[in-house]
Amino acid sequence: MNQVVDNPYVAPEAELEVQHAAGDLSAFTRFSTWAVLGLSIITMGIYSIYWLYSRTQQLNKVSSDRISQGFVSAAVVLYVANMALSLVVSFVTEGAGVLAVVSSVLSLVSSIMFIVWAFKFRNRLNRVTQSAGKPTWCGPILTFFLNVLYLNYKINQNIDQRN
C-alpha cells in the first residue's frame, strides 16, 4: 500500500539539495587563486587533491557528462598510497631499493592520473560554460602545467563574467 496510508505519522520525503541548471556555475564560490597556491604549498600538495575533488563534486552537479566517481576515488587512493609509501621509503634503510622503485612507479602513475583528472575537469568545465572562443576558455597547455591554479582562475573568471 501507500506509505502515507500505512503510517500517517511518517515525515514526507523531499529533495532538499538545490538543483542547478546546466551551465550554471552558482554551485562554485569564488576563491582566490593565491589562496589555492598558498594552501597547496603549506599542505605539500594535499590541498590540490582536495580542491580538485571538491570542485569535481560541484561540477558533476551541473554537468550532464559527469566525471566517474570510480576514477576520482582511484586517483585519490593512488595519491594517498604514493604519499604513504614515500614516507615509508624515507624512514626505511633496508630494502629501500625495491621500495624506492615501487614508490617511483606509483608516483608516476598518480601524477598521470592527476593530470588526466585535471583534463577531464577542464573538458567538462568548458562544455558547461560553453566558452569556446571566449576568454574564459580553459586551454590545454596551461591546464597541463598549472593544473588546479589555472582551473581555479578560470572558474573565478567565469564567475566574474556572470556577475
Automatic annotation (TrEMBL):
Is Ribonucleoprotein one of the keywords?
no
Where do the DUF4234 domain residues begin and end?
Answer: 32-126
Could you list this entry's UniProt keywords, alphabetically sorted: Membrane, Transmembrane, Transmembrane helix
Q: Where are the transmembrane segments?
A: 31-50, 71-92, 98-119
What is the protein name given in its UniProt record?
Answer: DUF4234 domain-containing protein
| UniProt xrefs under Pfam families | DUF4234
Q: Does the keyword Magnesium apply?
A: no
Top-level taxon of the source organism: Bacteria
